[in-house]
């Protein structure tokens, strides 16, 4: 019971870190562009996870449980890291650019729609989708309509980009679902962050012409997003989920969207209209319902927003 409570509290902290990172991402672009932000953020996350990997390896060596990877395992790890990194680059870029045109709170709720989108994509992999999930999809669509569609029946540019980001994150989750049982999750995450960081440098130089001074004065939000959101958040999730039920874990992590709205209000003075609040509430309800177990069968949703 004590270990479960500890795990749940760590997951709650993870949800807060991920949710508040939307504020850091928004503030971080006051002086630099989205690709520059992503490049520096992911390189910092890579360095942080390299330190974590060394620490974990030393612990395993001390316990006598360390195992050297063979060539096939290394190839699979690199392939997984490259695949996840490519998708994460597209998803992260869409989200970061989208934040230029929408609020952190709205972005948090729209991004979390991947929880509902993933089972739909599962149809193409031969997985069944029950009645409950179709209800969640319909509710999420209504919520998105209220949150993002204006009176002139157009969707905001930023909201649309973040919605595309949610779709990309859905692909990202499915790719992780394929590779994670076969490779070291922390190492694969480290590789994917490195890929995103390196690839982001190219559009950063071409489109944004970053300079060291602009990066320096944006360093606090970059460090928050890089170290806390990507590095610490991911590590906390791995540690915490060892001691808690997967369904409970996914429900707690869903609070990321709520924390995004709360921190957006507290730090950026973002105020949602009554219509937008209703939309957020419906989306959140759909997300919660989607993760509740069906009868005697538990549904496990892998969550990784970094």
Account of the protein in words:
With 306 residues, the chain is mainly alpha-helical. It is 76% helix and 0% strand. The protein is built from 13 helices and no strands. It has helices at residues 2-28, 34-63, 71-98, 104-111, 114-122, 131-148, 157-179, 185-208, 212-217, 219-240, 246-253, 256-268, 274-291. Helix 1 (2-28) packs across helix 4 (104-111), helix 2 packs antiparallel against helix 3 and helix 3 packs across helix 8.
Summarize the helices and strands and which ones pair or pack.
Elements: H1 2-28, H2 34-63, H3 71-98, H4 104-111, H5 114-122, H6 131-148, H7 157-179, H8 185-208, H9 212-217, H10 219-240, H11 246-253, H12 256-268, H13 274-291
Helix pairs in contact: 1-4, 1-10, 1-11, 1-12, 2-3, 2-8, 2-10, 3-7, 3-8, 4-7, 4-12, 5-7, 6-13
Roughly how many Å is the radius of gyration? 19 Å
Order of helices and strands: HHHHHHHHHHHHH
Shape: globular
- The fraction of residues in strands falls at under 5%
Supply the key terms.
single chain; 306 residues; mainly alpha; 76% helix; disordered C terminus
Question: TL;DR?
Answer:
This protein has 306 residues and is mostly helical. Helix content is 76%, strand content 0%.
